[in-house]
Design a protein that fits this description.
Mean pLDDT: 76
Number of helices: 5
Largest sheet: 4 strands, mixed
Order of helices and strands: HHHEHEEEH
Strand order of the largest sheet: 2-1-3-4
Number of strands: 4
CATH topology of the domain at 141-240: hypothetical protein PF0899 fold
Distance between the termini: 182 Å
CATH architecture of the domain at 141-240: 2-Layer Sandwich
Shape: rod-shaped
Low-confidence stretches: 244-250
Strand content: 5-15%
Length: 250
């Protein structure tokens, strides 16, 4: 086998030319394309990383915002709850005060009504008692009735302390009777009063039908009542636990 150096040389030249052509027109553009693609890929990765970082920041902001909103919501709810409790307490306090006021007003009204009813009943009782006393008096002997009340008046005078009786003896006295007394009756009354006082009596006779029956002895500083009106007043006062001006001595 023979070896042709010229052929080998041409082939070597062809190879070199091919390598140069490949390097000039193929490998260099491909390398530039690869570099460009690597740069683009790096840029894409960098952009992706930037977007990821931005997304993470946005997520952190959203998380912080949500946390802040949750805290604000809790604060608002707590404030609303506190305000509601305060309002409830105020309303309850006002309701209790109003209920107490209504209760006090109702109690006062009840007491006033009871007092009015009591006064009305006592007034009716007094009126009935006066009517009954008048009817009874009409059925009694007037002279005997006057004599009985005169006797009771004499006993009441005699029961007075000595100093009071001594002061009344000789003083100007008003003798009030339920009916008008004639001169003979006036003499009997004056004699009975003088005997009870233990001294002379200066009497001025007056008439007051409101006494119904009986007598009353008056001086500027002393009053002795012995009449049906005084008796009825004492009974009414005892029944109604009331004060009365109709005492035996005033």
């Amino acid at each position: 086998m023979s070896f042709d150096w010229w052929t080998l040389g041409f082939q070597a030249v062809n190879v070199l030319v091919l390598v140069w052509l490949l390097h000039r027109f193929f490998w260099k553009p491909i390398a530039a394309t690869i570099v460009a693609r690597q740069a683009n890929a790096a840029q894409v990765l960098e952009d992706a990383e930037a977007r990821r970082a931005e997304a993470e920041r946005a997520l952190a902001e959203v998380t912080a915002t949500r946390s802040g909103l949750a805290d604000e919501r809790d604060a608002i709810l707590a404030a609303a709850h506190k305000a509601a409790e305060a309002t409830r307490d105020t309303l309850l306090s006002e309701a209790r005060a109003e209920a107490d006021k209504l209760h006090d007003a109702a109690e006062a009204a009840r007491l006033r009504a009871a007092e009015t009813l009591k006064k009305t009943a006592m007034s009716n009782a007094r009126a009935l008692a006066v009517t009954i006393a008048g009817q009874l008096l009409a059925r009694l002997d007037a002279a005997a009735t006057d004599a009985a009340f005169l006797g009771w008046l004499s006993e009441a005078i005699a029961a007075l302390p000595d100093a009071d009786r001594t002061g009344l003896a000789g003083a100007d006295l008003d003798l009030v009777s339920a009916t008008e007394q004639d001169s003979a009756a006036q003499d009997r009354i004056a004699a009975a009063v003088a005997s009870a006082l233990g001294g002379p009596a200066k009497l001025t006779f007056r008439t007051d039908p409101a006494l119904i029956a009986g007598f009353e002895l008056h001086s500027p500083h002393f009053t002795l009542r012995n009449s049906w009106r005084a008796d009825l007043a004492r009974i009414a006062a005892a029944l109604g636990d009331e004060k009365t001006d109709f005492s035996d001595a005033a």
